[in-house]
Amino acid sequence: MKRLSEGRESVTDEERSGRPAASRTEENIAKNRQIVRENCRLTVRSIAEQVNIGRETVRKLLTEDIDMRKVCAKMVPKELTEEQKKRRVTICEDLLERQDDILGRVITGDETWVYQYDPETKQQIAQWKTANSPRPK
User: Fold this and answer.
1) How many domains is the chain partitioned into structurally?
2) 83: three-class secondary structure by DSSP
3) Residue numbers of the domain that contains 77
């Protein structure tokens, strides 16, 4: 207010001395994007440790520059072990023996094996997604 009353007409900040913001560069944006593409379940803290940048800077890079956000899904696709596949086959065979008309009520899908589990925390299932990423299932 004092400067405006003294005759200053611009309300934008003037150039100040000090250290320029060097962390939000195109190189760091590309590094963060690559790290998240390799593993979308990393935390901001682990990404910051890999890139050697502050956590808040990494969060801003991900949310503002790369336009990503954390999304959680209850069903997490996972490859089943051989033991789990065999157990499913055994259960299905048992159901077929018990039910005469079960085939009329079976709903089929693709050949993707999905294993549901109850994670200990919500953070274990959170993933980084962009606005264009498919919705978690």
Assistant:
1) 1
2) helix
3) 22-102+111-130
